Amino acid sequence: MFEFAKKLLFTGQFKMEKGSLTILTHRFMIIPVKVITSITKNAPEAKKYLYYGAKEGGVDFAEALIKSFKLDSVQKLEELLINTFNLGGWGDLEIVKNDMQNKLAIFRIKNSAMALEYGKSSEAVCHTNRGFLAGGASRVYGADMDCIETKCISAGDTVCEFITANKDYLSGNFPDLLKKQVLL
Ligand SMILES: [Zn+2]
C-alpha cells in the first residue's frame, strides 16, 4: 500500500494544493465516516444511491488507473484497486477468491471504517464498499457485476465479507441478499 502511495506521489499523480486533493485525474475529498453512516441510519432508502453511486465511481476510477498506469493486465488493475481502497482508509481489503473464468470473486475487509463507525445493526451496512467492489470487478471482468455483503462486523461477524458476481449467479445462490442489497 505505501509503495502505491509513493508511486502516486513521485509521479505527481497524488496532488494536494489550494484546497484540492487529486489522485490521477480524479478529485477526492476526505470526509468523516460519520457523514455516510449518518445518511445510512437516517435514510435507509439511501443504501441504493450509496451502492450505485460507489459502483459508478469504482468503474470510473478503474478506467483512470488503466489510462494512467497503461495497465495491460487485469491482475495489475485489481491490485491497484485494492491499494486504492486500503490507502483511502476504507478498511483492510483482501481478495480471498478470484475465479476469472466464472467471473466470481470473494473479498474480505477487516477493520471496515463504515461498519465500525456505524456500530451494531441487524443487517450488513457497508454499502459504499459493496459499490466500489462491484464497480471495480465490473471493469476487471469486463461485464456488469454486482456485490452483496454476506458477513458484516456491524451484524456481529468478525470481518465483512463480500461476493461479486453477475445477477444470475447471485439470484440463484443469494436471492434474499440480492433483493435486499442490489435490486432496490
Ligand atoms: Zn460490513
Question: Quick gist of this model?
Answer:
With 184 residues, the chain is an alpha+beta fold. The chain has eight helices and seven strands.
Number of helices: 8
- Any ligands, ions or cofactors bound here, and which? zinc ion
What does the overall shape look like? globular
Q: Unreliable stretches, pLDDT < 50, 5 or more residues?
A: none
Q: Largest sheet at a glance?
A: 4 strands, antiparallel
Rg result: 16 Å
CATH class, named Alpha Beta
Question: How much beta, percentage-wise?
Answer: 15-25%
CATH topology, what is it called?
A: Muramoyl-pentapeptide Carboxypeptidase, domain 2
How far apart are the termini? 34 Å
Total number of beta strands: 7
CATH architecture: 2-Layer Sandwich
Strand numbers in spatial order across the main sheet: 4-5-7-6
Structural class: alpha+beta
User: What percentage of residues falls in helices of 4 or more residues?
Assistant: 40-55%
The topology string of helices and strands comes to HEEEHHHEEHHEEHH
Please name the fourth-level CATH homologous superfamily.
Trafficking protein particle complex subunit 3
Average pLDDT: 94
Number of domains: 1
